[in-house]
Amino acid sequence: MSKIYRLIWNATARLWQVAGELGRQGRKRTGGRRLVAAGSLYLLPLAALGGELPSGGTVVTGVGSIEQFDKHLSITQGSERLAIEWQQFNIGAGNRVSFNQPSASAIALNRVIGTDGSRIMGQLDANGRVFLINPNGVLFGKNAQVDVGGLVASTLDISNEDFAAGNYRFRGNGNNAAIINKGHITAADGGAVALLGGHVSNEGVISARLGSVALVAGEQVTLD
Q: CA-to-CA distance for 100 and 113, rounded, in angstroms?
């Protein structure tokens, strides 16, 4: 039997967390189908919703540029490995973030150094691989469309030195922030999708034809 959880915003800790499994009071049956109460997800304070596109981006490793065109944010990557630190990384509904990378094996690491979790409600695409690191949690909403060569979404961090050297060792900070997918994530043929965090849940669709999908809850993870 699959478990049903509520994703809530912890305003004190400023991170996404998963509440316990819903009890009978949170469920309603009708016509043989189970409906789950929306819970706290729709009661978030406006401050927690963040912007409609990532902001405060600074390149810390590699070569790249960031340009915004109305509802479209474009990152052009000039090196095989690029690391950017963001104040926040959200994609609102109807908005798009694109990574233009030099090859399918290129990696763009995006680390959120602000205090809010990430909400991916729009479109994210890349011809290479994308890492999204946010210790405060990541939510892919039900209308999120992610089309990339490969994806790592993690609440565990990786040092710039390990990333530049190709050592993909991720370590946590002891919080219980969550990675939740309710949307549609697609990796290129032979690509990989990895969701890493204190709690990980997939309630949407993840496709990686001839590739691999990993959902890992833990404090330390090394990716091959």
A: 23
